[in-house]
Amino acid sequence: MSKLAINGGIPVRTEAWPQWPQWDGRERQGLMDVLESGVWGGFNEVVGKFEQAFGKRHQAKHCVTAANGSLSLEAALRVLDIGYGDEVIVPPYTFIATANAVRLVGATPVFVDIEADTYNLDATKIEEALSPKTKAIIPVHFGGLPADMDAIMALAQKHNLFVVEDAAHAHGSTWRGQPMGTIGHIGSFSLQASKNLTAGEGGLLLTNHDDLGRKLRSFVNQGRSLDGAWYEHDILGSNMRLSAWQAAILLAQLERFDDQLARRQQNARQLRSILEEIDGLQPMRWDERAENHSHHVFMMRYDPAGFNGLERDQFIEALKAEGVPCSGGYARPLYKQPPLSAEYSRIMPCPVSEQACHEVIYMSQNLLLAEPEQMDDIAQAIVKVRENIGELK
Ligand SMILES: Cc1ncc(COP(=O)(O)O)c(C=O)c1O
């Protein structure tokens, strides 16, 4: 077989992967409509239209948009009255925003380990981390794969805890037929540039609890009274409003959303069947209770033993050179980041999270928007690296 691309050989793939984000005349028209309306902020009716459409698509009674998925998490914790003296269970293997939100409202993140085969919060490890101060659990549906909501909701009920789903990656994912973000008390989404539904920046909250829905709507809009006069403010709040520009883009993006979700799932299935034939690369377990999985990230665990001892990062570089973009994800668990260290958090033993930082390989969602036969390029690149491993060692 030919020389590896990293050593000057010809790459398996030179064609570009599907770009992200995707847009056409619909986004352009939506933006022009906002421009010409003169109502550019969060009070344009297009914001409400997007909230209705997303809420309906996710079977939620209340959908409240926010400026981004970090502030939406903070809003969720604030309306649940979580703050100083409270503890919140979070995984240490997630984007920092999940745990920062806890600190930013004045509470303490308690880090509990993840499952080795899903990288989601390990529900069997939660109970031993509880204290009289524990108020809530934030499961993250990492990469779009739902956390075990049966186990987490049962624990929450037993111990009288709130559940805030961090569904930043999980647009369209479902658990026993129910869309993510609607199973816990509140679900929080990100609409940032890399996400499966995006306006460049943005966030939103779902809930099926009327009281929480009302509080959230008021909170993101300066605590305004929902029924009173303009300058009546019932609760403490802030301005977390999404702009009309973002909502116009999101409404157009939503039209493509279901086709894209289906395509990603079809390609992910194909990629999984390819990987079954390859020792040393194990995709994450796709729980059968999760009928839909957004695949915001396609993740697999790399075992050097399957690649003659080749280190993961060397493998990643070789695969990238062959034309398959991929990365190793987070370099360390969140409690090893200064703002979330032991001084500011409580840390349960997290060996799986430590291991995840060394073993995982990520491929981003836009690869899964390619034509299904193009998944073969990924297989060919992997096989080529394996067959020429001697060049790398
Ligand atoms: C799991 C998770 N939670 C929260 C966020 C924060 O979202 P945003 O970037 O919209 O503030 C992100 C963003 O990447 C995320 O990955």
What would you say this structure looks like, in words?
The chain has helices at 25-37, 45-57, 69-79, 97-104, 149-159, 210-219, 244-276, 312-321, 351-359, 375-387, and strands at 62-66, 87-90, 108-111, 134-137, 162-166, 174-175, 178-179, 186-190, 203-207, 281-283, 297-302, 346-347, 360-364. It has 393 residues and is α/β, with parallel strands linked by helices. It has two domains: 5-20 and 256-391, Alpha-Beta Complex (Aspartate Aminotransferase, domain 1); 25-252, Type I PLP-dependent aspartate aminotransferase-like (Major domain) (Aspartate Aminotransferase, domain 2). Strands 1-9-8-5-4-2-3-12 form an eight-stranded mixed beta sheet, sandwiched between helices. Strand 4 (134-137), helix 5 (149-159) and strand 5 form a beta-alpha-beta unit.
Q: Helical stretch count?
A: 10
Round the mean pLDDT to the nearest integer and report it: 97
> Which spans of ≥5 residues are poorly predicted at pLDDT below 50?
none
Distance between the termini: 17 Å
Q: Please give the order of strands in the largest beta sheet.
A: 1-9-8-5-4-2-3-12
CATH fold name of the largest domain, please? Aspartate Aminotransferase, domain 2
Helix-strand pattern, N to C?
Answer: HHEHEHEEHEEEEEHHEEHEHEH
Tally the beta strands. Answer: 13
Bound molecules: pyridoxal-5'-phosphate
Gross morphology is: globular
The CATH homologous superfamily of the largest domain is called: Type I PLP-dependent aspartate aminotransferase-like (Major domain)
